[in-house]
Design goal:
mainly alpha; two-stranded antiparallel ribbon; 14 helices
Length: 312
């Protein structure tokens, strides 16, 4: 599997030199950002066992904060990111503390995090003086990065392709390091059974909160870049629909691996464009895929490949 991942990364690194279509590059860029969201979500969902519906809110809040700081206050893009992540971390710790102190699980955890997410979306929608309400905010500024050869501005699809690919790799490695450490071992025990974790002396509250905060902050990191590539931010970024899209990506790829959500996200991002579906039909397609995956292959694509490999 490691060689397959490295091979896929190598193909991704050289692909823009051969792909001449801007629309194909754009699909890949959105796919990389969706994959980053899915990988960070799976840290909370697949590896900690908590179905969070707060992920889209973390993504959207960060997108708004960075956009407002840069466009309204003239902040540097890179300095605005830590402020946005700090706010997302504070919100996720607040929401997580409430949920985990009351020991909410499964359905109840999903409903409460969905309620918090909806509250933030409504605040964004109605705080017209700051967020411009339902019209959102247009972003014309483009981030730039200092290099020894001069300032590099991220204005072309080619440059954004490598920025978002690097973002995916960084988030993947962070999650891999977390899961490979003693934190990952504690999360594995908690996912199996909370009581088992407590019996082993694991502070279940602390590790659930840690996983929730890290995953939410990584979603915020994706949101910080997303608005500047898309050219606008809007309340839809915090919607439940986006949260369900992320769930569908993870379930399709498989919740028991880090690479599974990447595969699921890339497929679900590319598929509607390949068969030219409207936004309404795209939502219907996601719903149909969710039902199919849950009923036919609950372990997703990676689970299916693993079972066939074991059978052979």
């Amino acid at each position: 599997m490691r060689f397959a991942i490295l091979g896929g990364l190598l193909v991704a690194l050289v692909a823009p030199w051969f792909v001449k279509s801007d629309s194909t590059l754009a699909i890949a860029i959105y796919g990389f950002m969706a994959a980053s969201l899915a990988v960070s979500f799976n840290l909370i969902f697949g590896f900690t066992g908590q179905l969070s519906m707060f992920h889209a809110a973390s993504f959207g809040v960060s997108a708004y904060v960075v956009t407002i700081l840069v466009t309204s206050f003239g902040w540097n893009f890179w300095l605005a990111i830590p402020c946005a992540l700090a706010l997302v971390m504070a919100l996720s710790i607040l929401v997580g503390t409430i949920c985990f102190r009351f020991k909410l699980k499964e359905f109840y955890f999903a409903v409460v995090t969905m309620a918090f997410s909806e509250v933030l979306r409504l605040i964004t929608l109605n705080w017209n003086s700051v967020t411009n309400g339902s019209l959102g905010i247009t972003v014309v500024e483009k981030p730039s990065l200092w290099t020894p050869w001069g300032s590099l501005t991220f204005s072309s699809g080619f440059s954004w392709y490598y920025v978002t690919l690097a973002l995916l790799v960084v988030i993947y490695i962070i999650c891999q390091r977390v899961l490979g450490s003693w934190i990952g071992q504690c999360l594995a025990a908690i996912r199996l059974n909370d009581q088992l974790g407590e019996t082993l002396g694991i502070d279940v509250f602390k590790y659930k909160l840690l996983s929730f905060a890290i995953g939410s902050a990584l979603a915020g990191l994706v949101g910080a870049f997303y608005g500047f590539y898309a050219g606008f931010v809007e309340p839809h970024y915090l919607s439940i629909t986006l949260g369900l899209d992320i769930v569908a990506m993870v379930l399709l790829g498989g919740i028991n691996s880090l690479i599974g959500p990447v595969i699921g996200a890339l497929l679900l991002t590319a598929l509607p464009h390949m068969i030219e579906l409207s936004a309404e039909l795209r939502i219907a397609l996601y719903g149909a895929i969710l039902i199919f995956v849950i009923l036919v292959m609950p372990k997703g694509i990676m689970g299916l490949l693993s079972s066939r490999k074991n059978a052979a």
